[in-house]
Structures are given as structure tokens and as C-alpha cells.
Amino acid sequence: MANVRFDLGLQNVLETNVNSTERLYSFIRNASRLKSIVHVSSFYSNCDRSHVDEYIYDDIPFGGLDNMKSILSHLSDGEREALTPTIIGQMPNSYVFSKKCAEVMIMQRFSDLPISIFRPPVVTPSYQEPEPGWVDGLQGVTGLSVPLLKRTLLWYYGNPDAYSPWVPVDYCASGIIVAACDTYERHQQGKVMASFDRMPPPPPVYNYCFDQQLQTWQQFTRSICAELPSFIGRKLSVLRNHITRWRIISRITFVVLYLQAYLGDAVLKVLRKPQRNVRIARLLHTLANALEFFLCYIWTMRNDNVKRMRSLLKESEASFLEFDVDRIDHKEYFRSYVDGLAKELKRREQRARSRK
């Protein structure tokens, strides 16, 4: 349901991530067999705060969500673009702001439904299902990991001591399934509360984050480097890839990357072969710029609902619906992370050759 691009205009991303979601939930409101809805938001929907509770923050500027949407509807594209930085404030892009708006919209319009807000953080390749290291896209942190395997000199700008929770995609899927069951049970209890208060309780929020095995971004990259197949590759990757506080150093490495890409494409052009190096360099640069904010800051969070939800799982259920990231063996995980990413890169190269 959501558009995850960070570079769309505010009006476009609100239409997709808020208005379309509102139309969907309005459509299924009267579904006779509706049991539970889990709205997948983002842990970063409130990244303008240093601490995030399992709570919907209704602090939309310009008088609230409806008033803000009304104001935007009367502006030209240029006026909306000029006003966007004022509206999103300290948030890094319109995408995370739209996820915040969707949460507020759900609280205002659909609190009477069996609905909850699920906030995953950085989603990474799978731990076990459908196979260890499974990945089908190179977005986010996974995309930034590609130079580690390609032995490319590339330093990213950020805070080496900053950290953010990450979750394997299969654990995230299990968490959503369990949250759906918990949402149904909470809604049944909420009906009793509403019969006394005449007001339905707010939708439960699940900050799907664990905090016992947090890694800094520098440690995260080092964990990947430690599982590279060759001894020389493991040692040199420590120098090739780094999180640096010095933006100028990051820019220099990207300049080197672009020079290599242009020279490589020039040779390929002479050989009359497809040129992809510059396009890949631009994609990496765009991705690094989009994720720069998240590499620089540290957030704390409450995850009481998620911990409670895990405590209710029986061992027989946890055997196929495990979602506690603190129970992951990191060395085993990053070994499969590297293997899975290498397989995905190989598949993409094979598809590219088959299209020639």
C-alpha cells in the first residue's frame, strides 16, 4: 500500500500513503468477517524525537492533519515544494512524515476497528525463511552493503557510534502475524472498555525493536566484512569501507567511485558493450544521501507491547513464529547475510547478461 521512495513530492506521497490507505480501510470497515488489521508503519515515523513510545503522536503542524491537507490542496506544485520543509520540520523526507500522518489518520478515523500500528525499523535479509540470507531487493542498508562485496572503496558519512535496530525480513513477517492475533484479542477486550467509556481505546502500537544486541553502524559493517569469503578481502574491507564523521572524506570516495565508473563505461563503450557503471554509482550516491540522516542519530524506544506479545507465545508457536531479534546468533546471521547478498548480485548479473 505504501510508496517507499524518499524523493517524491509531499502531495504525491500523502495521496499514496495516507489517502489511499484511508480509502482501503473505509472500504473494508463493514466487512462481515473482519478480524484484525495490522497497519505496517515505520519506527522512523517519529524520527524527529529522540525517544519513541508505543504511542501515536498527533502533532501534525498547521492545525492538524485535515487542516494541513486542506491548505496543500489550494497550492500550486511550486508553492507546495516551497512549504514542504516547514511542514515536515526536522524529519529527513516526506516519506517518514507521511507514515506519521497515516498513523494519526488511523487513530482519528478507525479506532473502532480491530486495528493496530506495527513499526518495524531497518529491515534486512532473512535469517531462516524462505532460506537463510534471502533477499529480493537492494534498498536501504542492504544496498549500501553491496560495495563491501564488490571490494569498492567507499566511506559513508555518519556517526560511527550511532546505532539503530534492525530486523530480518522473516522475523518481521512473523511479528506481523503474531500482532494480528494480539490485535484481535485486544479489540475484544476494548469492546468491554468502550461499553463503559463510550469511547474506543486508541489502536495499540508495536515498536518492533529489540535492544539487547544493538550494534553501531560501524560494528554492523565490520560484521559483514568478517564473513567475506577471502582472507585478503576481509582485511582490506576494513580500509575500503567505513562510517566517517568527516563528510569531505565521504565525498572524496564518491568522486573516486564516479571516476572509476566513467572510465569503465568509456572502455565498455569502445567495446560496444552495455554501460552500467555510472548508473550504479548514481544509485549508490542517491541511496547514501537518503540514508545519511539515519546513520547520524540515535533513538531510544519503548517496546513493552512487543515484549508482552513475545511472552504470550508458547514454545511450539515460537518454533515457527519466532520474532525476537535478541535471540539471533549474529555470526550465523551475517554469514548467511553475505551469502544471500552474493547470490542476489549473481542473479542480477545473470539477468543482465541474458538481456544482451
Task: Characterise this structure.
There is one protein chain. This protein has 356 residues and is mostly helical. 54% of the residues lie in helices and 8% in strands. The chain has 14 helices and 9 strands. It has helices spanning 10-27, 65-73, 77-88, 94-109, 140-144, 146-150, 169-197, 217-225, 231-240, 247-270, 277-291, 304-311, 315-321, 330-354, and strands spanning 37-40, 51-52, 115-119, 122-124, 154-157, 166-168, 205-207, 241-244, 300-301. Helix 1 packs parallel to helix 4 (94-109) and helix 10 packs antiparallel against helix 11. The longest helix has 29 residues, at 169-197. The model has no long low-confidence stretch (mean pLDDT 88).
Task: List descriptors.
14 helices; single chain; two-stranded parallel ribbon; 9 strands; mainly alpha
Spans of at least 5 consecutive residues with low confidence = none
The end-to-end span amounts to: 34 Å
- Oligomeric state of this protein: single chain
* Mean pLDDT rating: 88
Strand content: 5-15%
Which word captures the global form?
Answer: globular
Tell me the Rg in angstroms.
22 Å
Quick one: how many beta strands?
A: 9
How many helix segments? 14
Structural class: mainly alpha
The description of the largest β-sheet is:
3 strands, parallel
Strands of the widest sheet, in order across it, are: 1-3-7
User: Could you state the order of secondary-structure elements as H and E?
Assistant: HEEHHHEEHHEEHEHHEHHEHHH
Helical residues, percent? 40-55%
